[in-house]
Specification:
The protein is an all-alpha fold. It contains 16 helices and no strands. It is found in: Membrane.
């Protein structure tokens, strides 16, 4: 009775082997129920060059254009598609690795779906190219936005009567005004355009536009900033070490630049915003010694109280406060008051 039992176990083992072997291939994934290596006539140990060589030979053999009969053409088209699919999988190292993992681990059914569609749905473009393009677009928008702000500020100054008169005075001093204007209409228009261009040029050369409306520089764009980032980090570390050694360890007094740096930090202003602060305001900061924390706190409270008094005396602000007390935008009314 022992022999039949052994044969039964052998039969079950063979069936189980066949079951798992069959399920190593999943319909709809990779080469379907066929082995990609068998489709190309190569083995798992084959190099990429061997796989490419085999693909070219089979593609040439099974290309649909090489067959004239309709039945042969349909069969060749089907084979050509299988060959192309197998080559696309095996020529890519990552997909080939996923495929080999499926062959070695047929029981991880759902994992194979995940790996397959993760590769299929992943963007084909190199991530580095995407990042580079994104940084370039941001840099262009950043520069054009700064240039637009600068031109807006320049146009405003050109229309302002005070700056126009100052520009005309500079033009007269330098002998740039053309007093021999033509009397015909076309001559007047040309003279007007020349005058406007001259005023714009004088204002641009002599007016110091700062802050967010200053003329943009190439070093302001993101690309250049990223390239120069190691240099700026090095400068910051050197500056910080110098600050600690000079003022924290040696106890030296702050210079003008150091005092302005501390004041700017207390005010929460960026470098571009600080550049737009007038010299009168900076002189006031220095007179009140705002680089000292206690002085800055007192000064800030005084400024806030002053602002509250001004708002309390402002008629428009009073109307706004009455409006808000009545409920603001959400108030209910029954006809005109």
């Amino acid at each position: 009775m022992a022999a039949p039992v052994n044969r039964r176990w052998i039969f079950l083992i063979i069936c189980a082997s066949c079951f798992f072997t069959a399920h190593a291939f999943i319909e709809g994934l990779y080469c379907g129920v066929e082995n990609c290596y068998d489709v190309l006539g190569v083995t798992r140990d084959s190099e990429r060059s061997e796989i490419s060589k085999s693909y070219r030979q089979l593609a040439k053999k099974w290309h649909p254009d090489r067959h004239k009969k309709q039945e042969d053409k349909e069969k060749a088209s089907e084979m050509f598609q299988k060959i192309a699919t197998a080559y696309e999988i095996l020529k890519d190292d990552e997909q080939r690795s996923d495929y080999d993992y499926m062959l070695d681990n047929p029981d991880e059914y759902y994992a194979h779906y995940y790996y397959y569609y993760r590769r299929q749905m992943a963007p084909k473009v190199d991530v580095r190219i995407v990042i580079a393009v994104a940084i370039t677009v941001i840099s262009v928008i950043q520069y054009l936005g700064g240039l637009s702000n600068y031109n807006s500020a320049l146009n405003y100054l050109c229309k302002d009567q005070k700056y126009r008169m100052r520009a005309m005075d500079i033009a007269r001093t330098e002998g740039l005004l053309n007093n021999n204007k033509k009397k015909n209409r076309k001559g007047k228009e040309e003279a007007k355009e020349e005058e406007e261009a001259m005023i714009r040029k004088i204002i641009e050369e002599n007016m110091d536009i700062r802050g967010g409306y200053r003329k943009p520089k190439v070093t302001d764009v993101l690309w250049v900033q990223l390239v120069l980032l190691p240099y700026w980090l090095y400068k910051y570390v050197v500056w910080w070490l110098r600050w600690v050694y000079k003022f924290n360890i040696k106890g030296e007094e702050y210079g003008v630049e150091e005092k302005f740096h501390i004041i700017r930090k207390f005010l929460g202003l960026g470098q571009a915003q600080w550049e737009s602060v007038t010299e009168e305001d900076k002189a006031e900061y220095m007179d009140h010694e705002l680089w000292i924390k206690e002085n800055f706190t007192v000064w800030k409270e005084e400024k806030e109280e002053e602002m509250k008094r001004k708002l309390a005396e402002n008629n428009r602000y009073k109307m706004y406060r009455r409006y808000m007390k009545k409920g603001g935008a959400g108030q209910m009314t029954f006809g005109p008051e």
